[in-house]
Structure formats: structure tokens, C-alpha cells
Design a protein that fits this description.
With 420 residues, this protein is an alpha/beta fold. Helices cover 42% and strands 19% of the residues. It folds into two domains: 274 residues, Alpha/Beta hydrolase fold, catalytic domain (Rossmann fold); 96 residues, 434 Repressor (Amino-terminal Domain). A nine-stranded mixed β-sheet has the order 1-2-3-5-4-6-7-8-9, with helices on both faces.
Length: 420
Amino acid sequence: MNTSTLRTGYMKWLLFLVITTVFISGCKKDDPLPPEPEPTNYEAYVSHKYVTTYSADVIRSMYSNLQLSYPDAAPLIEKVKYGVNVYEVTYKTPFQGNQVEASGLLCIPLSKNGGSFPMISFQNGTNTAHADAPTVNISNLLFQYLHATASMGYLMVIPDYLGFGVSEQIFHPYLHKKSTVASIENLITAVSEMTADSLVTAKWDKTLYLMGYSQGGWSTLCTTYDINKVNSLPFKVKASVCGAGPYSLSIVQNFMFEKVTYPMPVYMAYSGLSYHQLGLITNPLTDYFNEPYASNLSTYFNGQYNGSEINQRLNDTVGVLIASSFLNGINNDPTYEDFRNAMTDNSIAGWNTDIPIRFYHGTADNYVPPATSEQVYQEFENAGAGDKVAYFTLEGLNHSTGAVPTILGGLLWFNQMEEK
């Protein structure tokens, strides 16, 4: 057989092989694709995004500047060990029978080896403006110092509260215990899920400290009680710091109403409108506020104005802003029974705590009376808390000037507990 015949035979065989292979391949079933991994079903966590970074050197400079005005801040400088990454966290929390999305900040130490750290959750004071939420107003100086706290080896968590950040379409449930506590606890749960699933580089060692000022002092105490005494969560509070909070809402309300003028009418209006929006009080706002304020309150508290701007739209003369029937009947008129119940239900009293709690309050505070801190401290004493609870009076300081000393005192105390 010559070479040409061999070549022709080889080509026919090759063609047959190709056709057969194609035919067989076309007749067999497609190989199934590998199944997509099931999405992780988180209890609270939804998403997070990077916000900013602080270097350790920048943070040392920040604390050096701070100690010029507050010498007590000096020990914090040598505690700075890490740079800090800041993230915005979106998470789920219940509100009026529905699951809604809320937001807050998570600040983590930038450790080369990762590491496991304690957590501080800081609850801020009264806010009315969407632009001033912690996740929005990143350049706020107080918030920046709080971000920097992570450099000392903490996970720093700062909730926006409902009504701010990603939930700004909701009217903020001001001084509403149930929804406030849930929003704080679920942010902590979301961060726990993030750290456990390595969504960020730092881990949580399950040590939890709580701290807050003004509204945040109240929400801190409410949350401390719920976590340690009521809710079955996989974490407990180790210690809490509460500054100038309206723990007894009736004491605060009477303090406001007994005066001819009150310098923060925004506080009086905010709680009344909040409870009306929540359905805790059902009678018309004109039963509580005089016109034109009653009709205009919702436009003042639309998230566009800060507290000072709302104060300018209200009136600091109590009898001009508040309806006389309310002033005269708040303590006994059946018309205002729902309001009295709302005040009672959303106050927080002392208990026989098994963890340490510190209270701070400025003696010259004319926004939130020191009497509310004095009373809750006495309630703890009467309940048998003993030396677990301490009350620090800030001599000569008012509501505004008492904030930073409270935070510094709390951070130094937490540092001491971590060193033991």
C-alpha cells in the first residue's frame, strides 16, 4: 500500500473519530453545575462598608490636643497602640411589629495579627437632624474621639438610633425604651456576627462595656438592665457608665414645667410628639401644646433642623408653648393618663445590680436635673447594690460641659478594668 493510500485511510479514520465524539458528546446529558453556596442567614447583620482610617500617630496627636483642655486625657496617649478602621454597619431590628433596617458605626483596631478585643457601645445624646447622625456626621469632633478609642484595643460601636442613618424615613422614637434597647442590642449582635464570620479583621472577646450621655445615659441604663436581667442574649454587660440621663421622665418633666422659662423647649416637644407618633398618647396635640406650635411640630421635627434651630422655632416660656390644661392636669387629670403611663413605662429605676455602674452628672445642669441621677442612685442603694454603684458629681458643670469629663472618666475606668 502506498503512502497516499495510507494517508487517505488515516484521514477517514480521524474524520470518523471526530464525528463519533461529537455525536456522543451531543447525546449525553449536560454535567450539572456545582450548587451555589447558601447565603449566610444572619440574625441581625445585613451589610457593612468602609468609611475612613486613622493612623496611630494621628490619634496620639488628637489625644495630645485633647489633654490641653482636659488634663485627665493624658493617660490615654500612651494607651494608643493601633490605627483604626471605621465601618458603617446596616442591621435588622424590630420596630412596631416589623423588622426594619438600622445603622451604626463599628471602629476596629488595625492589629497585624488580628486579635480579639473587648467592645464599648457608646449611645449619644439627643439628636434631631439627619445630618448629625453618627454614620453621617463623621467629622464631628466628639465622634472622632470616640472612633479613636478603638486604638486602645477596643471595638467601638456607635448606634445611630432608629430615625437616623439608613432608617431616617422613620420618625425617631425618642425616649421609647423598647425600640431603643432593641436597636442597641441588635447592633451589638450584628457586630458579633461580623467578627465571628471574619467579615472584619478583628474579633470580639465577648467583654461588653456600655457608655452614654444625656439621652444616651438613659438608653445605656435601660440596655444594661435588659441585657443582664431580662433578655437571653449570648453576651452580658461587664460595666456601664451613664451620664446626665433622664432616668425618671416624670422628674424631668416636672423640672421643665415648674419653671417660667426652660432653655431647651426642643426636649419638651420631642417627647410629646414621639409618644403621639408611637400611638402611646392618642388625644390631639392641641391638648398638650398651644398653637401655632401644635400644628407645626411635625414640620420642625422632620430631620432637617438641629436642636438649636428647633428651639428658635419654639418658645422657651413654658406657659406659651405648653397648654395650660396640660400644665394643670398632668399629675391627675384623666385626659393625660396615657401620657403618665408612657412616662412611667419608659423610665428606668435602680435594681440590685451584680455589675458595676457609674453615674455622672453636672451640678449646674439646667437641662436634665441632677435630681434624676440622685434618685436612681438612691434606688440602687435601696435595692442592695452597695458599692457596685457610684455617683460622681461634676462640680459647676452644666449639661454641655459635663459630656467630655463623663466620657473620659468612663474610658479611664474601662482601661483600669482591662488591666486587672
